[in-house]
Amino acid sequence: MPIYEYQCDECGKRFESLVMGGKEPKACELCGSKSIYRLMSACAFQTRDKSGLVTKSSAGTSSCSGCTSSSCSNCS
Predict the structure, then answer these.
(1) 32: left (phi over 0), alpha (psi -120 to 50) or beta
(2) How many domains does the chain have?
(3) CB environment 13-25: b (16+ within 10 A), e (fewer)
(4) 17-28: per-residue pLDDT in tens?
């Protein structure tokens, strides 16, 4: 069951929703507008080496390891 991020066109609110059985939210949780869209989410995770040190990694072959931006449009 994936968690997707959404944004409302009316109020700009960003929110997450657990999508069970493909049933996506129908309206913004703040203002109730039906003008919402799903955002592209960035995947991030942490791994530890044998000594317990954290090695941060990001999705795919991106060179953005450690990037905290929610959008790759901020990168040059």
Answers:
(1) left
(2) 1
(3) eeeebeeeeeeeb
(4) 998 888 899 999
40-48, long-range: CB < 8 A, 24+ apart: 40/71, 41/4, 41/5, 42/67, 42/69, 42/70, 42/71, 42/72
Two tokens, residue 52: 């317990």
What's 11's domain CATH number?
2.20.28
Tokens of 18: 């657990």
Per residue in 7-51, pLDDT (tens digit) is 999 999 999 999 888 889 999 999 999 999 999 876 667 777 888
